[in-house]
# Entry
Amino acid sequence: MGNANVSNVTIRPEEAEFFANLARDWWNPKGPMASLHQVNPVRLAFIRDAIDAHWPGARALARPLAGKSALDIGCGAGLLCEPLARLGASVTGVDAAGQNVAAAAAHSEAVGLDIRYMAGEVAGLDIGTFDLVTCVEVIEHVADKPAFLRDVAARLAPGGLLVMSTPNRTAASRVLLVGAAEAVGYVPKGTHHWEDFITPEELETLLADVGLTVTAKRGIAWRPGKGLHLSDDMSLNYILSARRA
# Structure
């Protein structure tokens, strides 16, 4: 490999190292990654709706991804890979941090799920294309977003479905996601850099530049008594689906 992949490096090394240090705590719902455990069911509800809208007949199936391949980019310790496998997919998880991948593989083996995990940048791995590509809370950690999205689009099989989620860059997200969330320990300090956030309009334009069109878009909002939920309010965080234009 040598220096061949230097131009493909989009995740900042210090970001990968930061999350690697948290790998052992990913699966503790009361640990440093508690916020991920709380948002995961909300993301999965959107993903299931996107699957049902994308593939005819999927809505009636308990395992709508049976016979299909799925790739989760920036998979962490596998919090999304495992439910995708339970929906029937042949799942590959890729993460820039080797410790995350090790934690993911250990957990999936312990629960009896056959998931392929790989450490590295998605651009530098010869893994082919996938029917479903997911990339949640990753692009805000990426330095060269257009290059990263080219790599993501290259992994999408003809007729494939992409799902991405990321924080919005708004005054509200600066206060709540960065300031307040870190202050109260809801997310570990250093998780978010507000200036790297991307708006839905910006992401939609960048996706169009790589030949993808957005098919659905929802906010992930929070309110007392209801917690995190899908919403028309995209001011904090949003999730979208896309396909080839």
The beta strands are 69-73, 90-95, 116-119, 130-136, 156-167, 212-223, 227-231, 237-244.
